User: Fold Diguanylate phosphodiesterase from Pseudoalteromonas aurantia 208.
Amino acid sequence: MAGFKKLIFLQLSLWLTFSLIGTFFFASSFDSAVSKAQRSSQVMVTQYIQNKTMENVTPEHIRQALASGNVFSTFIVRDFNGDTVLNINAPTPLPFLTNIIENSINAIRPQFSVNIAKDIKIEFVINAQSQAQLLQQALLLLFVLTALVAFIPIIYMKAIYKRLNRNVSITVANAVDVYITQNQVTESIENEFNTSKMQALSAELAPSFNRLAHFLKSKQEDIQTAAQSIKQEAYKDVITGLGNRNMFVEYYEHQIESTSKKSFGTLAMIRCSELQVINQTRGYQKGDEYIKSVSDIIKHVSGTYTGSQTFRLNSSDFAVILPNVPTKEAEHFGETLQARFTQFQQNQELSSVANTGIVPYETGKPLGELLSVVDNAMSMAQSKQANAWHIQRESDLVNNVGAGFGNQNWRKVIHDVIDSKRVSLMMQNIMPIGKNVKAYAEIQARFKTEEGQMLPTASFLAMAEKLDMAIEIDKLIIDSSLELIKSRNFTEKFFGINVTASSAHSDQFVIWLERRLLKDANIASKLVFEVSEFGLQQNIKASKRFIDMVHRVGARITVERFGVGLTSFKFFRDLKPDFIKMDASYTRGLEEDKNNQYFMRLMVDLAHRIGVSVFAEGVESQEEKHIVETLCLDGVQGYYIEKPKEI
Assistant:
């Protein structure tokens, strides 16, 4: 292609060179012809007037002599004093190309003649129209001929180049097809270009193609290595370094579900029961540390089993595959995990750590069915006690008899807690900032099994919500709180009680609560009911009915976890809460996050304008407490201020 461009450049250069040379030649010829015509005209005019006087040369004689108008384009006659006697001006425009050349060389110039008596002076310009036409035609002919000579080889060479290029392309395409045919049955590039098959195409290309084959092999190896590295990173959990859900699915499908070799083993799912509570009360950094610690415990216990694999499925769930481990041995695995979790719970002062569901598996078992069964086992474990484990045995899996048993067992446990009123109340104070600020102590509930074991609070409340039993739990907590306040004579202290959104939006619950509070009117004025911002937003009309009733009996309202929704201040104008409690996510790292500081200060200013006090929760350090104080909040709550304690 570069050679063809050089050919075009050379031809164009030659064409321009010959055109310029030809133009110069014709221009010189034109100048010579015009000069000769001018000299002839001057001699003729001089001879005509040489022996004549002005009386003999009249304008009429001259007009008759110039009647044709083909000799002169300009003819001026002057007398002895230089006055113009006759002026004939009939300029004829020259052709375009000739005019350009004439402007360059100035060939046509005025000529002068004088008689012997010097009383007749004539100035004239000849008419060079005929010479100009000849020059124009010669130039056009020159350009056409030189263009043909220059461009015909270019057109011919272009056709040859296209044909040659097409032949080369076909040859290369055929060679590539041969190579693809040789390698299409394998996943990796093994064969080089077959020289014998290439001989019919082009033996000269074979060495280059073989070098290309080696290059492709090396690049394929690089790509495979990079892809494996990317896959490992994509399949790795950042916090724990374990494989994620994608790796778990791939491992199960290749090593268990689709393998031709018979195998059996145990699948365990471990669910971190306190992650949400820790994230909300202590911050997400503490939540990550909690997950990392649970991961270390699982890896340590499962590492004693040959071929064990551990994965993190989502934010709170881990999966452990124990190949060739029978159900009896899996019981020992569950007991060991429970013991380690209980030890960690005591060290970290948690209400629970994690629960474990265990099921056996065998080759060909679909993953979806197995996960459904192990999730059912997890529900059973959560309904027992803190850090409990449960094995879903094969006898429970026949014809899917055990389906839904986890939910049924939870329902039984929750009913048993309600009927037996096995609820333990904890208290966490909100520290006021400022002398005139009214704060309160938040009451937190813990639930126990029939054997006195503490149930995982987050799982218990989640299952109660799922089974439509949250209203009964809220009634139990409120009743227990009121009885405790009366029995301990806490009439001077203010207490906050959490209420679920489903209860706040229930007309029956609102009627029950109003009657219950009116029964103890002196205590009602000491109560503050906490409802989440998100829950209140779900039904503004029902939320307003609930808040109006609470205010009617003398109690107050706190909007907790404020800032995670899209609340507008029309929301406050309509509902008129007494307090808002900023979500813990705004407190975390507050000393370094200027955006959170700005947002909290804006919320404080606007809330104070409408008479709403603002609290911060999840305060975990001296720095966070100091920043909260500078932002003019009304109170702080968190583990740095006070941990939940028994009332």
Observations:
- Residues 2-137 form one domain.
